[in-house]
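Reading a protein record of the kind used here takes little practice once its layout is understood. The reader may check this reading against the record printed directly beneath this paragraph.
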Amino acid sequence: MNRWGMGTMLYRGTILYALLAMFYDTILIAHFCDRLVPERLALAVGGTLVLLGLVVYALGVFAVYEAVDARQLATRGIYAVLRHPLYAAWVWCIVPGLALLQGTLLTLGAPVVAAIFYRLCIPHEEAHLRRTFGEAYDRYRDRVGGIVPRFGRT
């Protein structure tokens, strides 16, 4: 497994769905119906989600590169709050933000597709981390949430 983990599978599946949905919406549906999300609301909320997602994603990339290069488990910075900040940014911010910006029926389903791919991909990555880091990963997994933070746990 490389430093991207199962992310490339998650990203490819979600992007493929989103592109097909945008194509379908643009070609077929856009001519017959209006946007489902008002444009100003879509720009404000969608733009904010995308920017927030890019920040979380960047923090995760820098932290994981540092840990991988040191052959350590990433547990500091954003990884102290989320075990999978890159996926969290993708599932909770970037994909929903882009879907809101497009604002049509099928693209609004893209976050659901991202969440499904996440649920399918992550067990493989976590098994690899368990094999690589053993009990240290188990303790980390018990303490830190996957894509949803666990506040109040030590």
Observations:
- The chain has a mean pLDDT of 83.
- Residues 95 and 111 are 6 Å apart (CA to CA).
- Residues 39-69 form the longest helix (31 residues).
